[in-house]
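Example record for the data management plan.
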Amino acid sequence: MVISMTGFGRSRIASASFSVNVEVKTVNHRFSEVNIRMPRHLLNVEDKIKKKLTEHLRRGRAEVYIMIEGEGAVTRKIQVDWKLLEEYYLFIKQARDKFNIEGNVLLQDLLTRNEFLHIEENEAGNEELESLVLRAAEEAVLLCKQMRITEGEELRKDLLTSLGLLDINIDALKEYAPQVVFLYKERLMKRMEEFVQGQIDETRVLTEVAIFSDKIDINEELTRLKSHIQQFTQTLNELEPIGRKLDFLVQEMNREANTIGSKANDSTITKKVVEIKSLLEKLKEQVQNIE
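Corresponding structural encoding:
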C-alpha cells in the first residue's frame, strides 16, 4: 500500500478543567523518528504518546506539539518565608528603638518585599489530563495518517503512469535494437566494397557483425528492466511499508539503464535511454516520500 510520509493532523479535546491541543506534522525520513514538544509535567507519558504514534506511523519524521490551556492547567500558591519575615520585622523595630525613629511597621512595608513572599505556579499533572493528552494525540495521528493515505493514493496513480511510460520505452527499444545490427552490417558491407572493389569476404563480414552484435546486445538489460517494473507494480499492493523496497528497485533500474547507455552505439537508443532515465529520476523523487 502506498502511504506518503507527508501529513498533518490536529486535535482539540476539552474538559471542565483543561483544554488539550495536539498537532502532528510528518515529513520524509530514512527511518522512524518522533520529536515531542510538551509541558515538562507530562514527560512521564512521553513514551505512551510515542507508542501511539509509532502504531500508525511506521516511517518518517514526526513533530508533535502539545499545548495545555485552562484554569486547571496551572495551580498558584503563596509561598512565605516566615523566618526571614520575622527577622526583618524585628530588625525594623530594633532600628526604630535604637535611633529613636517614630512610626510603626506597616503591613504594606512587608508585602512589597519579594524576598519574603512570592506566588508559586505549578503545572498540573493528573490522570484526567494525561488521559485527555493521549486521546488527543491518537486523534491527531489518525487524522495525519488519513492525510498520508490520501496523498499516497495520488502518488500511486502517478507512479503507475510513470511505469506505463517506462514500459512503452522499453518495448520500443526491444523492437528497435535488432535494426542496429542490420544497419551496422549494411555500413560494413558498403565500406568493404569501397576498399576491395566488389570482392567481399562474407565470412569476415559475418564475424565482424557477430562481434558487434554481442557487444551491443541489450536484451538481458531490457528483460531485467521488465522484471523490475513487474516487481515494482506488485510491491505497490503490499500492506507493509514499501518505500525502501521501491527505492532499491529504482536503483536497480537505473543501473540497467546506465548499462544500456554504455552499450549504445546508436543515437535512437541513446535518446530512449535519456527518456528512461528521466522517468526513473521522477520515480526516485516520488519513492523517497513513500513510507
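Summary line stored alongside the record: Residues 152-287 form one domain.
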